[in-house]
């Protein structure tokens, strides 16, 4: 039996309120399908993790898309056992997203553009950044301190971040990523706010010489689609729940709001910009 701790702060009433699924239905699902699986207090009371909110919502999305409840639960239960990453989850949830090979120098430029726009325009954004290694985080720390000043929360992932350093208001929340986790190969910047949504996620191609520096290659995707960005935020928040329980500065109601997909015009503009970015990246490669 899993014992509750800081990573399991929610009662069944909390879970019901956050997901819209009645408590009686959640108990029925648990009895019939073993989902969601709560931790138990000594007196037998159920407690749930923040990630359970996302998993229940994902079951509802699958059911609304036409899957039988049992199949939806089985799919979510199977997926939750896999090593998760922001990149992989977005590819799974949004298979139409375009992935292209970009250099590290191009990713730096795109990341700075998102960060600058987030700092200039976004109202109390929720921001996530994945830096692979601590030295990369250190190189960007001043920028992220500035971003964190006006953010609802700014969360940074790195392999040797200080996981339990006291969280100071207006400072990034550091999350240490375990060795061997898929996130250690990823680059991500996610800015999610009511008035600005943008994300860039990438995974480093295997077998590269680290001495390549700015010429290292990544499979990359970016989006300003509200639905995609919200999913990126939810996945990143869930990973932070796993690696640093209790990091959330109160209720992040933004994550609970559903977003509609982008308009056809926005999709067409994104396709054009993807092509432009590809050509710009190609022009920067050594000849």
Automatic annotation (TrEMBL):
Source organism, top-level taxon: Bacteria
Gene3D superfamilies, sorted: 1.10.1660.10
InterPro entries, sorted: DICT_dom (IPR019278), DNA-bd_dom_put_sf (IPR009061), MerR-type_HTH_dom (IPR000551), MerR_fam (IPR047057)
SUPFAM superfamilies with a match to the protein in the record: Putative DNA-binding domain (SSF46955)
GO molecular function, one term: DNA-binding transcription factor activity
Keyword Secreted: no
Signal peptide: none
Domain HTH merR-type intervals: 9-78
Keywords: DNA-binding, Repressor, Transcription, Transcription regulation
Protein name stated in the entry: MerR family transcriptional regulator
Species this protein is from: Nocardioides agri
